[in-house]
């Protein structure tokens, strides 16, 4: 069945630029785009449905390529404490931080985790997201990581969104492995990853490479284990210090290295050579009131593809709007609105290994698009949050959220 969508302008994001088609039309057949171009050149045909998009600007469906959407509990109390001058270290020493979310996640049932994550995910979908990556990482034992990854699979099955799961067991050291980080890494590599991969729960593997998390040597052991299982890797790198985790990620041809405030030009060169995407997370930068900016000029100079994501998590980026991240990427990191939009479409798709099928509006790709009632594509980064009037289409079918 063919459907014609017309009376619109398109920012197709082909090649990572706006690639604008004025007065455009789109022909979809099932879940795919069959044709896209100027309305004056629409192929003649018998269209089962015709939609007038009322002059909307059409972009690819937004892709949030870095989230920790599934977790138990809430850390707004820590937010209040920090505003009263209590430091992260003091909060962590008192059992707060990631450890408190781990306790709450371990205590929650699968249904409770699903229900709370569904609410957060629907906020992202109402903001134009049609694909999302969701990480585990608040379980830190096999049963709890499995519980989170099963919830992630269930979210993709029950909501109108394409979901990629990432195992982030190497997020933090669980209490039962206190002072024994190497033993925990061994447990991840020899027991957790093989079991979870065998159950079909893992699309990629991630780790937190940081002085307060895991060393490059420990991360490399996780990468080798992922490689043995045929799983691609990603890495939280250079968020708070420079350990050259992003160069390590590039050596393993990681899909992406993420955060990157402290990355060096040498890291950027390594990432460019490997095709590893730089995923910038302005929500965490803003929420932590960081001051170290990612090296935008080095990333641009060496042609590193740049993605932007929410990093939705309870501790450092409780962000429920990917579009607000567009504004933060421009306002905080000085990205252009066009770069930022590429960062939540084609480059985000590349960071998930989905760019052959998603991330730009071209014939043969999936028909995931949003028709925004806006004046210019830059409006998506300009307005601070809020609910822009839009129509969301996923796999060629209009979504009612
Ligand atoms: N970097 C972060 O900012 C989050 N995890 C990570 O690897 C922090 C997660 C949390 O505080 O709950
Ligand atoms: Fe993260």
TrEMBL record:
Residues where N-formimidoyl-L-glutamate binds: 138, 313, 315
Organism name: Pseudomonas chlororaphis
Gene transcribed to yield this protein: hutI
Boundaries of every Amidohydrolase-related domain copy: 57-393
The family this protein is said to belong to: Belongs to the metallo-dependent hydrolases superfamily. HutI family.
Keywords: Cytoplasm, Histidine metabolism, Hydrolase, Iron, Metal-binding, Zinc
Major localization class: cytoplasm
Listed EC numbers: 3.5.2.7
UniProt xrefs under CDD domains: Imidazolone-5PH
Recorded metabolic or biological pathway in which this protein acts: Amino-acid degradation; L-histidine degradation into L-glutamate; N-formimidoyl-L-glutamate from L-histidine: step 3/3
Function: Catalyzes the hydrolytic cleavage of the carbon-nitrogen bond in imidazolone-5-propanoate to yield N-formimidoyl-L-glutamate. It is the third step in the universal histidine degradation pathway.
Protein name from the UniProt record: Imidazolonepropionase
Record field: catalytic activity: 4-imidazolone-5-propanoate + H2O = N-formimidoyl-L-glutamate
Keyword check for Repeat: no
């Amino acid at each position: 069945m063919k459907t014609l969508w017309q009376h619109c302008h398109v920012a197709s994001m082909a090649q990572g630029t706006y690639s604008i088609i004025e007065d455009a039309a789109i022909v979809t057949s099932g879940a795919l785009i069959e044709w896209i171009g100027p309305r004056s050149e629409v192929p003649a045909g018998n269209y089962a449905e015709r939609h007038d998009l009322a002059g909307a600007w059409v972009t690819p469906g937004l892709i949030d390529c870095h989230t920790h959407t599934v977790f138990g509990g809430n850390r707004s109390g820590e937010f209040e404490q920090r505003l009263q001058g209590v430091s992260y270290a003091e909060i962590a020493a008192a059992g707060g931080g990631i450890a408190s979310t781990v306790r709450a996640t371990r205590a929650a049932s699968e249904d409770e985790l699903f229900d709370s994550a569904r609410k957060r995910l629907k906020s992202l979908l109402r903001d134009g997201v049609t694909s999302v990556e969701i990480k585990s990482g608040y379980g830190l034992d096999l049963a709890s990581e499995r519980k989170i990854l099963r919830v992630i699979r269930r979210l993709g099955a029950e909501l109108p969104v394409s979901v990629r799961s990432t195992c982030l067991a190497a997020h933090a050291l669980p209490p039962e492995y206190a002072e024994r980080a190497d033993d925990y890494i061994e447990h991840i590599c020899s027991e957790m990853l093989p079991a979870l991969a065998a159950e079909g729960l893992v699309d990629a593997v991630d780790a937190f490479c940081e002085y307060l998390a895991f060393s490059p040597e420990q991360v490399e052991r996780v990468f080798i284990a992922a490689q043995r299982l045929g799983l691609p890797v990603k890495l939280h790198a250079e968020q708070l210090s420079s350990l050259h985790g992003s160069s390590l990620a590039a050596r393993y041809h990681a899909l992406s290295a993420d955060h990157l405030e402290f990355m060096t030009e040498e890291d950027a060169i390594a990432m460019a050579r490997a095709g590893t995407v730089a995923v910038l997370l302005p929500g965490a930068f803003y929420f932590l009131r960081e001051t170290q900016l990612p090296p935008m000029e080095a990333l641009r100079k060496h042609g590193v593809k740049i993605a932007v994501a929410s990093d939705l998590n309870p501790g450092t980026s409780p962000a429920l709007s990917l579009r607000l991240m567009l504004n933060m990427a421009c306002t905080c990191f000085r990205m252009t609105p066009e770069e930022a939009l590429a960062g939540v479409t084609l480059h985000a798709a590349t960071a998930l290994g989905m760019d052959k099928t998603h991330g730009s509006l071209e014939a043969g790709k999936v028909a995931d698009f949003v028709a925004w009632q806006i004046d210019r594509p830059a409006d998506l980064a300009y307005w601070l949050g809020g609910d822009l009037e839009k129509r969301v289409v996923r796999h060629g079918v209009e979504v009612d959220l």
